[in-house]
Write a structure and sequence with these properties.
Elements (H helix, E strand, L loop, with lengths): L3 H27 L15 H7 L6 H15 L6 H26 L14 H6 L1 H5 L6 E5 L5 H14 L2 E5 L1 H8 L10 E5 L6 H13 L8 H11 L2 E5 L5 H12 L4 E3 L14 E3 L6 H8 L29 E6 L5 E7 L10 E4 L10 E3 L1 E8 L7 H7 L1 H6 L4 E4 L6 E5 H5 L4 H15 L6 E7 L2 H25 L7 E5 L11 E3 L12 H10 L7 E3 L3 E3 L4 E2 H10 L25 E6 L4 E6 L12 H5 L11 E4 L19 E3 L2 H19 L17 H11 L11
Parallel strand pairs: 1-2, 1-4, 2-3, 4-5, 5-6, 7-10, 8-11, 9-14, 21-23
Antiparallel strand pairs: 7-13, 11-14, 12-13, 15-16, 15-17, 18-19, 20-21, 20-22
The structure holds iron/sulfur cluster and zinc ion.
Length: 714
Amino acid sequence: MKTLFERVFAGNDEMYALAEKAVAEAVAKLGPDAPATFGDTAYSLPCFYAMTGKKIATVGEAKAALENEIRAFMTRNNRTKDIFTSGVATALSAEMIELMKWATHGGCPYEEPVMGHFTDAQVRELGVPLVTRDIPGVAVIIGPAPSAEEGVALVKQYQEQGIFVTLVGGIIDQCVQQGLAMGFPRRIVALGHELSSVAHVVSVALRAALIFGNKEPGDYEGMWRYTMERVFAFVNAFAPVDDMTVACGAGAIQLGFPVVTNDTEENNMFRVPKSIIIQPDVSQFNATSLEARDIKIKITKMDIPVAFASAFEGEIVRRGDMQVEFDGSRKTGLELVRMLDASEIEDHKFTLIGPDVDQMDVGSKNDFVIVAEVGGRNMQSDFESVFERKFHAYINCMEGVMHTGQRDMIRIRISKSAFENGLRLKHFAEVLYTKLKSDYDAVIDKCQVTIITDPEAAAKYRHEVATPAYDKRDERLLSLTDENVDVFYTCILCQSFSPSHVCIVTPERLGLCGAVSWLDAKATNELDPNGPCQIVTKGGLIDENIGRWEDVNAAVNKYSQGALESVTLYSIMEDPMTSCGCFECICGIEPFSNGVVIVNREHAGMTPLGMTFSEMASMTGGGVQTPGFMGHGKHFIASKKFMKAEGGLERIVWMPKALKDQVAEKVNQSAKELYGIENFCDMIGDETIAEDPETLMTFLTEKGHPALGLDPLM
Ligand code: SF4
Ligand code: ZN
C-alpha cells in the first residue's frame, strides 16, 4: 500500500513524464518556433497562464515552461501543501500534453463527439446560466462506469438537474454506445479519451477567475480561492483509479472540487473528509456529489411524459423526425400572455379548442395559439412581455420539442419520439402553468392556459385579441425612454462571479448580457425586492449628454461595495460602465477612422483591430472600468444612447456581417432619426469587406462614413 503522498507524487511524475515526451516529440517534429495554441482564447496557455502569469505561444516556450515553472510546483517535502501543488502540476502537465496535440495537428485533433478545448466565447456564454443557477454545477466524470447503463443513467441524472457535464475516458464510449446525444449546446461535453484532456475543464474554471473574477494571472492563491468559492464543480472518478487520476484529484481538491469515487480502501484509495468521498454505490454518485459540493437543485415536478431540462434547450428536431409542426410564417402561430383580473381566472384550467396532436397528420403544418392568462395582486401589464419571452425556454426544455421565434411568428416542432411517449397539447399547458407559477410566484396568483388549433378560431383570436395586444405593447415600449421613466435599476446577478460588477439597466440600455431589459429588471425587483435588481432614482443630474447622475453614482458605489465611484451611462471613454464577462458584444476604438468596431461572441474571425472577439473581450471585464472598450448587449447597438457622449452610433465602422444583418433594420432607423442618414448599415464594414484597418479606411472613405469627420476619440 502506498500513502496518499506517494500516490500523488507518483501520478504527478507519470503525467510530467508524458508531457516531457510529448513536448520533446513536438520540438523534434516541428521545431521550437512552431506555434502552440488551442485557438480562440486570449489566455494562452490558460491553466498555465492563470497559475504563473506567463503566456506561451510556441512549442519551445512550452518546453521551457514545463522544465521551469511546472517543475517548480513539484515539491516533495511531504507536507500537505506538496500534495496540492503537485496536483496542480499534474493538471498543468496534462494541459501541455493536450497543447502538443493541437500544435502537432495544427488545430483541434479530436473528432465528434469529442470537443476538448472550450473557446473563450463558450466560457463567457456560460456566465449567465451559472449566475442564475440555471446551471447549478459542473460535473467532471472520469473513466468507464461499471456498466454503460449506469454511466448514462448518471449523466442523464445530472443533465435533468441542469448540471453541466464533462466526460473523460471510457464514459464517452459508453454514452456513444447508448446513443446519448452530446455537445456544448446540450451541456454534455466529451473532453477526450485520455486523462490529460481533463485539463480542458480546469481551464474553464481558471478562465472564469480571469474573465469574470478579475484575478491577476499568476495569483496562485487568488485562483484557487476563486474557484473554491464560486465555481461549483466536482469530480466523479470510477474505479479503478490510477495514480495519475489520484494526482489530478489532488489538483481538483486544491481548486475546491471534491472527488467522489467507487474505488475502495482495499484498492489503496483514501478517504479525506469533504475532499475524497468513497461511495461504493454508483447510483448514489449524484446525491453524494451534490451534497459534497453543497449544490441545491430546485426541482419543479411536472406531470409530463418527456424529460424537462435546460439541457434540451439547444435541441433541434429535424423534418424527418417530426410528428407535427406549428408554423407562424405559414399559418397562425402565436403565443401570448394576458393579464386578467384574478376573479376571471380559474387556476390551472386548460382549454383546447380544435384537434390535438394525435388528430393531426404526420408531418403536417398546423395552426397554433397558446395563451396564458395570469392574474394576481402584484401583477402589472408591463410584465406580460417579460413572462411571454420565457415561453421560448420553457417549451424548448421539453425533450423532443423545438421552439423558435416569438409573438405571432413562432415555430414549434414536436418529434415523433416525444409524440410516441405520449406528449400532447395539455402537456404544453402544464409546462407553462408550472413554470410561470414557480418562477413568478410573487406576482402570479392564478394562471389558466388556452390552446387553439382550430384554424378559424385561431385566426379570429389573432385578429381580435393578439394583434391589438402586441400593438399596444409596442406603443408602450416606444414610449419607454431614459428621459421619461422615473427610475433605473441595478442588476448585480453577476456578482457571484464578478464581485464588484454592477449593471445599470435603463429603458434604452439593457444589461450587457442581453438578457435583462428595463422591464425584466422591473419585474425582478417586484418579485424579489431584496434581490439583484434594485431601484436607482434619477436625482442629481450632473450631465445629461454623458449620462451622469449623483444617484447612479451612489448606487454603483453602494452595490459595488465601494469598488466603483462613478459611472456614466452613455460614454465609453469617461467612467464607462463596467463589464463582468458575459457580454454579448464588445466594442473597441478603431483609431484610424475615429470610430468603433463591434464584435459579437459568435464571431470567431479577425477584426480590423487585429484582435478577435476573445482578445478584445480580454481587454475588459471583472467589474473594472476600461475606457475605450465596452461590453454590451446586441440590442444596445441601435439605441439612441449608444455612445451618445461620443457622437452616437455613427461611430460604428465595422461589425461582423451576421451581426449587422441582425441589427440593420433598427440601426438604420435610429441613424435616420438621429442624423438623417439613409441605410447607414451600408456604410459599415464587415469581414467580407475588410479585416484590416487599411482596407477598412479605403472602404469608409469611399462611402463617406460620418465617423471620419467627427472629433478624435482620443
Ligand atoms: Fe449580469 Fe448585468 Fe446581465 Fe445582470 S444585467 S445578469 S449583472 S450582465
Ligand atoms: Zn455577467
